From TrEMBL, chain B:
One of its GO terms (cellular component) is protein phosphatase type 2A complex. The gene is PPP2R2D. It comes from the Eukaryota. One of its GO terms (molecular function) is protein phosphatase regulator activity. Belongs to the phosphatase 2A regulatory subunit B family. SMART domains: WD40. Keywords: Repeat, WD repeat. This is Serine/threonine-protein phosphatase 2A 55 kDa regulatory subunit B.
Amino acid sequence: MNPCPCFFRLGKGRRGSIRFLSPPVFLSSDLQLLQWGSEGSLNHRDRNSTPQPLLNPRGGLLPCCPGAGRGRGLGAGREAVTSSRRRKNMAGASGLGTGPGAAGGDGDDSLYPIAVLIDELRNEDVQPPLENLATVEETVVRDKAVESLRQISQEHTPVALEAYFVPLVKRLASGDWFTSRTSACGLFSVCYPRASNAVKAEIRQQFRSLCSDDTPMVRRAAASKLGEFAKVLELDSVKSEIVPLFTNLASDEQDSVRLLAVEACVSIAQLLSQDDLETLVMPTLRQAAEDKSWRVRYMVADKFSELQKAMGPKITLNDLIPAFQNLLKDCEAEVRAAAAHKVKELGENLPIEDRETIIMNQILPYIKELVSDTNQHVKSALASVIMGLSTILGKENTIEHLLPLFLAQLKDECPEVRLNIISNLDCVNEVIGIRQLSQSLLPAIVELAEDAKWRVRLAIIEYMPLLAGQLGVEFFDEKLNSLCMAWLVDHVYAIREAATNNLMKLVQKFGTEWAQNTIVPKVLVMANDPNYLHRMTTLFCINALSEACGQEITTKQMLPIVLKMAGDQVANVRFNVAKSLQKIGPILDTNALQGEVKPVLQKLGQDEDMDVKYFAQEAISVVAQRLRKLDFPVKDSGEPSVPRADKNHFPRPRVPGEDTGKGPVYPLHGDTRDTLAQLEIAELVHFSQSRD
Amino acid sequence: MNTHAWPTVFGGGESERTRGGCPSPCGLDVTRMLGEDCTASRQWCHADIISTVEFNYSGDLLATGDKGGRVVIFQREQENKSRPHSRGEYNVYSTFQSHEPEFDYLKSLEIEEKINKIRWLPQQNAAHFLLSTNDKTIKLWKISERDKRAEGYNLKDEDGRLRDPFRITALRVPILKPMDLMVEASPRRIFANAHTYHINSISVNSDHETYLSADDLRINLWHLEITDRSFNIVDIKPANMEELTEVITAAEFHPHQCNVFVYSSSKGTIRLCDMRSSALCDRHSKFFEEPEDPSSRSFFSEIISSISDVKFSHSGRYMMTRDYLSVKVWDLNMESRPVETHQVHEYLRSKLCSLYENDCIFDKFECCWNGSDSAIMTGSYNNFFRMFDRDTRRDVTLEASRESSKPRASLKPRKVCTGGKRKKDEISVDSLDFNKKILHTAWHPADNVIAVAATNNLYIFQDKIN
């Protein structure tokens, strides 16, 4: 359950003063805690603790607390997890400084993860564990415990359910602390369907009392589970019991409870007939749409499509459309933005026969005003969906009514608005063709391409392949090609990097011939640029383009340039030559590798600069392998024929970023840190085998 | 932590404590409850100065923070037959280092470890939670008891050394063994990097899931479970800092209405904001200001009208503000003027010039309500603190000092002589000690128990028990 659905979603970077994006100054244990939960954290944790298995990463923070000796209070049971992958995370997370090589090693069949789990669980004196975990104060743990309890409930026979599970739910529901009562809210719906009538009545009674609990936390939990519970109830009970509960929660004194009732409204509405909806639900929903708190109105706007579907076309026309109009002109920008986001879905969900008229007459006037809204978030929310209306309204309406809006938004002062329009061009293209827009499009693109903020430039680069596809090769060559080349010499690395990737995508779109004529010559010219950064860009471009361009162009046009640059006076260029050769090696044929690449690499391998030497050796090993493969084709061509460094023989900590799933493709590439071993093995294995 | 680092030893020998008392104007018989051994000769250090005092919702726990970044929590003893007078005594429950001094390398600024505010969270399970903040970083602490210890871990030996994960061939379930009660404090969340200026207030919302933090120019809203994001709801920073005319001095949520909060400014005004009406609360919905009396206008008017603390009454109907010379009670329904104004130390009005010179005029006195909102308390100089009974309109000056408050004796009301003849037991304005100031006080939410922080000493007084 997201405890506060709307408020903490929007507003990112609304003002300069929101500085939550900046990283913490000090290494806080709390932040580590946060990372443990996520899948991607495995590598991170490993890296932290690899060098010294006994290092307690939290050591620095705790010694002053009385509990420091224990050290575990912090991480205790933060995550009660079930999947084995997660358990490994927890292994790293237990804060004991456990050798994570173990966790990262061949953990799946060892007892290690279970050992960690058991040791974690002892923290709460566990009788029975899940029930206890459902009462701890960490929400993540509680939610996981409830999730597991829900799964377990399905395994119970009806008899066992009543004998063991229902009493457990009752204990939780009548617990002293709100934590157990909130957990109980999520369990009613799983035991209700299979319980006997007497027990059912009790369950309903308990849910009722939780809905009027003293603490807002429990009421929030109850409100968020109300819809789910309604679904398993008999229709009569829904009408007689759930609806009053819903009405009460929707008029709760706490904003955070009322807004969750809106969510429940969707589920309840799906269960009731049209007449019942009108009498039982609509009064409350109308009230919610006009609630004093913008957060509740925001929820109505955010859930509008679901509400629309649940309520059916008649109520939509009579009630929801007027409500939506109000939301579109709400005094709070967050609400307007949420409503603007729903404009397209609203149109799509309307009955096909009259949706054109409804949108034209009842929605479009409001949209027109939003185009010139004072708040940029509203405008950009609208810009992200407005193009979708064109398919609904058809060609003529689009040209007459929507096109002026698109054009206005393309000229908007806020780059995000323009970007959103450009990113959705494909919808319009289908309806009216892009030519209608291209006159205004071009200035907008050029302006974004030269925006002072590099993130804006980055965003427009990402849309270039899409635009190229929409606009066609001629228009592109004429207008946009020069922009794409200009980005290659941008002073921000991220832009240059994105520009090279962009070139690759363009080549994939327009073909090698186009590449050979327009792109490659321009890229290769930069190899003579006085600025070494630009010379390196040439190499990066070659890395990206070689595959798309194929062997011929790579060998004939690119390779000579790369080899020539091996004599560059800047070491960075030289070792990037080595990297490039490694990268394009697989594309080249044996002759080129043997005759041209290998000598150059060997020369670089003797370079005075340590890094150049290192990367040259690395490239040598890859190239050598490639050569060997070409010389001795193996039947099982997927596997390299070198004796692989079996992971069982080398139980080593994994390197960050290494794909643990596939195993190392090039065994020697595995531990890039150990240069010495690298060189030794490279000599032993590769050149002895390949030199014949 | 070494006990000697905290020079005041609380809960000393039983013999020191006596009971007795005399009626005070608030109907509160104040009894000194806890002795402190900080002798006058002993040089206490800067880090020991208490910087905040706060009771939890039940009043059973009392937290203090000091300039050394430490938090000390006291627990009230339960009724005990063998020690009939022990009920109500507060003894040290837990001590921990909440904040450490830091250095902001980007701005070349030292960040003090001083605890600016402590706020308890409503109790949600057997453990207690509190928020503590220094100038920049807010931390959520969990204070929990442990009387069992697990033995027989899989991952480590009995002596705590880690076992080689590959040697684990059999699993065992750790067994819980009883042990001596231990109270441990652990940091649960750290809310950092959201404030450019110094945090002066934190306040927990009645929805129990959000809280606000206010610095000189901005107020941020946090979710208690989300540390990497906060929402700025008030921003009074002008585009040009030279146009800055006022700063935020304190902020607090309404005790019951989740959408209402107030913040006070250095200009002596209070703004009440409704979070329902808009996501950004730059526009207030109520503005409390008392028109200035032109006759008393002086060079210091603006400085002494600055509000140093704002507190809602428990009922939520009133709020109280403290400025330099007075404490005012406002009805939330009347913005034009306060319903009550109590003079705290009006005799200082003639001394403002010297108070300005020794910077005392910028002292930030706090104020607090009693449990039933019928009395208020705030501090003054010379270790004096003042109590005002709102019903009877009586007030009293009391002194928190080792000399005047003998154990088990009642506190005697003190009087400051304002010109003319000095009567017996009166103290003249000129002999007030301005280095002894009581800035932080707290009142038990239900009982007549008060905690008064006098520089490095904490005094806890209690209603007379017959």
